[in-house]
Amino acid sequence: MGQFWKADPGHFSQAPKVGRMMTRTRQQLTRDRVRLQNQLEGFLEDSRIKLSSQLSDLLGLSGRKMLRALADGETDAGQIAALAVQGVRATPEQLCDALRGAAHSARNAVRS
Fold it and tell me: How far is the C-alpha of 43 from the C-alpha of 39, rounded, in Å?
């Protein structure tokens, strides 16, 4: 029974390496996510969509629903604004203003 309680010395020497590797990976994934979010916001601003000024988190639930609708070709700002969940502080009119006239240009930008 004593043999089960003996620790393998190599097991403990790997723990700090694995911890460092996991920390580096998590930091890289965070950097990648921020970079992609900034690229997305830049694309939307180039398309005159000011959605990030009305939503606190562009990649939150409401933002993802609205982005999905834009990607699927929806051009009616009212229907896109209606996708916002109840917790969004912006009114549907503010969301429509942020999206108005821009859905068509964003759709064309994706196609070109």
Answer: 6
Tokens 């097991």 locate to 11
Please state, as a whole number, how many other Cβ atoms lie within 10 Å of the Cβ of residue 2. Answer: 5
Measured distance CA(106)–CA(49) in Å, rounded? 8
Tens digit of pLDDT for each residue in 25-63? 999 999 999 999 999 999 998 888 888 889 989 999 999
pTM higher than the cut 0.85: no
| Cα 88 from chain centre | 16
In whole angstroms, give the CA distance from residue 98 to residue 85. Answer: 16
Cα 51 to Cα 38: distance, rounded to the nearest angstrom = 13
Q: How far is CA 93 from CA 27, 36, 50, 89, in A?
A: 38, 28, 13, 11
CA dist 106 and 89 (Å) reads: 24
